[in-house]
Automatic annotation (TrEMBL):
NCBIfam families: PPR. InterPro entries: E_motif, PPR_At4g14850-like_plant, PPR_rpt, TPR-like_helical_dom_sf. Keywords: Repeat. One of its GO terms (biological process) is RNA modification. This is Pentatricopeptide repeat-containing protein. Transmembrane segments: none annotated. Gene3D superfamilies: Tetratricopeptide repeat domain (1.25.40.10). The lineage of its organism: Eukaryota, Viridiplantae, Streptophyta, Embryophyta, Tracheophyta. PPR repeats lie at residues 80-115, 219-253, 453-487. PANTHER family: PENTATRICOPEPTIDE REPEAT-CONTAINING PROTEIN.
Length: 673
């Protein structure tokens, strides 16, 4: 069977099943009374597109020719039920041969009077529909099985439970299991399938209760299923406890057990437990398994111990794709994109995990150009549309670096490819246009959205507030309330920002107090800082001081006290500014910027002795002020500038233009230099 399967070199997708169903529809209508809409249903769901331009095998006879050559053609007519079932099982298990499996099943049924169809046949087909998550076909096949009496054995029942569970019909899976209990009790296969269904649904209490019921039936599959379920549902500690209990009950651990347990250790980010588990694996001689090796590497990567991960990966000797994938994820999470890309290039086949890892790594580093290049590479290599989350991440980086050009290109790609603009992607687009300063684009996209959620409103209100459209921000807030969308803490930060930019003290006060009185939202640091800044810009120092005194101590952090200090300096109240800056030094003693601010305050007063003392104290504590920078996206690159910096490749041209502009300004002002 393996040789027969390996001869065919064509590739198929699930969608091409419709082609063969349409060609074989007469067989289904004649032989499957319980499947009246089979051909029509799949044809309406799937579309047939031959992407490669190659001839797609169309019928069982052609398969015989392509698979078997001369000697298999001679033997094909002699195939019995066992041979057909073996071929069918092989097609179901191998990715890309789903259509072949369906063809073969159609042919088997057309010859059912001669060869018959047994439980093994229908079990394979149920497994196929579970694999494809095709609930419609699964239900129709189940109906046929009930009619023909092929729904009784434990393996058939377990396959039906698995199919309904994977298709999202948990209640129907439970109904089949309960029917099995009433008819003849529980067998191990059905029980394990139901435990897996409970885990898949997140019903861990029910899974545990079922597991301990008739626990004498439990085997290693039962234990591994439950342990894996706890890990997948976010209960790593419970998984580890069950692992210990498994050993105490005399059930032998295997590579699947350790694979799940290693995932639990990785989720806990516990280096000690991970090392202990590594030692346990070595003791049991399971470290050679590619599955386990990948788990060990993943543990060390997630606890941040890349040296251990590298050492184990290099000495394990297997170099499996699973292990390399874990290393790529680890390097990307640590920001080591050079090593991540090196391993990425070494993989012949790149799955969605490694692509997502690289995108995630570049997003963390805010490397806009690298993300865009990787996006183009993905589209070219995979000939597939990227995951929407990848596009959303790319848009967030474009927003961070104000790369409007790249953001527009991504928007254009989404439009050309007909990618569905869900609320997350739309919000990311609006945020990108807003942070790139293109409010008309952001506003246009916002107005097209009919079903607006809180996050979308928050982004648009903040956009208006930050770009000087305070009245629009306030009006949009009123519209949000009229539509029945309740605000949150982020909404009020945006509103208070709008009020402070426009000097709306009364409205700002009403907004701040309504937050707690009307919406029961407790103020946070950002809200207090906005109010301090609002009073400072309006030169209402008395209100500002009283408000500062009412702020709880735990919220008087660097942001709030810093806003108070800036307001005092703005209003030339050096005494309050000194007090605020001294308080800031206690909060952020290692911040050179705070020392410089206080030194400048004393210098403005002409108090050179105090300024010298602060400078000396700053040097004694080795506090450094990191230079701020500005950047601009130009010619497919981000250009960064620091005050007084002359390291840029075009520094001569830049400073020459600056001198020219300075001269022009002096001329306009009437002072020639």
């Amino acid at each position: 069977m393996q040789d027969l399967c390996s001869v065919s070199n064509f590739t198929t997708r699930t969608a091409t099943l419709a082609y063969e169903i349409e060609r074989s529809s007469h067989l289904f209508s004649v032989h499957f009374p319980a499947l009246p809409a089979t051909a029509v249903t799949l044809a309406s769901i799937c579309s047939v597109v031959d992407q490669t331009g190659t001839e797609v095998p169309a019928c069982p006879a052609k398969h015989k020719a392509s698979f078997s050559e001369k000697h298999v053609n001679d033997l094909f007519c002699q195939w019995d039920l066992v041979t057909y079932n073996s071929m069918l099982s092989g097609f179901v298990d191998v990715d890309g041969y789903e259509r072949n499996a369906l063809e073969l099943f159609v042919e088997m049924h057309s010859k059912s009077n001669d060869i018959g169809i047994d439980d093994f046949t229908v079990t394979s087909m149920v497994k196929l529909f579970a694999k494809l998550s095709n609930l419609c076909y699964g239900r129709q096949l189940h109906s046929y099985m009930v009619k023909t009496g092929n729904d009784r054995s434990g393996f058939v029942v377990s396959s039906l439970i698995d199919m309904y569970s994977k298709c999202g019909c948990y209640k129907e899976a439970c109904g089949i299991f309960r029917g099995c209990e009433k008819e003849g009790g529980i067998d191990l296969v059905s029980k394990n399938a139901m435990v897996a269904a409970c885990c898949r649904e997140g019903e861990m209490e029910m899974a545990l209760g079922l597991f301990w019921r008739e626990n004498e039936l439990n085997d290693s599959v039962s234990w591994n299923t439950l342990i894996s379920g706890y890990v997948q549902n976010g209960y790593p500690l419970e998984a580890l406890k069950l692992f210990v209990c498994m050993g105490e009950n005399g059930v032998k651990w295997n590579e699947h057990t350790f694979g799940s347990v290693l995932s639990a250790c990785a989720d806990l980010r516990n280096s000690k437990i991970g090392k202990e588990m590594h030692a346990w694996i070595l003791k049991n001689g399971l470290s050679s398994s590619a599955f386990v090796e990948s788990g060990i590497v993943d543990v060390y990567c997630k606890v941040g111990n890349m040296k251990y991960a590298e050492s184990f990966h290099l000495t394990s000797g297997t170099g499996s794709s699973f292990s390399i994938t874990s290393m790529i994820v680890g390097y990307s999470s640590q920001g080591n994109m050079v090593e991540a890309c090196r391993l990425f290039d070494s993989l012949e086949e790149k799955n969605s995990i490694v692509w997502a890892a690289l995108f995630g790594g570049y997003v963390k580093l805010n490397q806009c150009e690298a993300i865009f290049e990787l996006l183009c590479l993905y589209i070219a290599k995979e000939a597939a549309i990227p995951d929407p989350l990848i596009l959303v991440s790319a848009l967030s980086v474009c927003a961070f670096q104000a790369a409007l050009g790249l953001g527009k290109q991504i928007h254009g790609y989404v439009y050309r490819m007909g990618i569905e603009m869900d609320i997350k992607m739309t919000t990311a687009m609006i945020d990108m246009y807003s942070k790139c300063g293109s409010i008309p684009y952001a506003e246009k996209m916002f107005l097209k959205v009919i079903e607006r959620d809180l996050v979308l409103y928050n982004v648009m209100i903040a956009s208006y507030a930050h770009h000087g459209y305070e009245i629009k921000a306030i009006n949009l807030f009123q519209e949000m309330l009229e539509r029945g969308v309740g605000p949150d803490a982020i909404t009020f930060v945006a509103l208070l920002s709008a009020c402070r930019h426009h000097g709306l003290v009364d409205l700002g006060e009403r907004t701040f107090y309504s937050m707690t009185e009307d919406y029961h939202i407790l103020p946070e640091t950002d809200h207090y800082a906005c109010m301090i800044d609002l009073y400072g810009r309006a030169s209402q120092l008395e209100k500002m001081v009283l408000f500062m005194q009412r702020i709880p101590i735990e919220y008087q952090d660097a942001a709030v006290v810093g806003a108070f200090f800036n307001a005092c300096r703005l209003n030339k109240n050096t005494e309050l500014a000194r007090e605020a800056e001294e308080k800031l030094l206690k909060i952020e003693g290692d911040s050179g910027a705070r020392y410089v601010q206080l030194a400048n305050t004393y210098a403005a007063e002409g108090n050179w002795a105090e300024m010298g003392r602060i400078r000396k104290e700053m040097r004694g504590k080795e506090a450094k002020k990191f230079a701020g920078c500005s950047w601009v996206y130009l010619d497919n690159g981000v250009h960064t500038f620091i005050s007084g910096d002359r390291t840029h490749s075009k520094a001569v041209c830049i400073y020459s233009m600056l001198d020219f502009l300075t001269s022009e300004l002096y001329e306009i002002a009437g002072a020639f230099c």
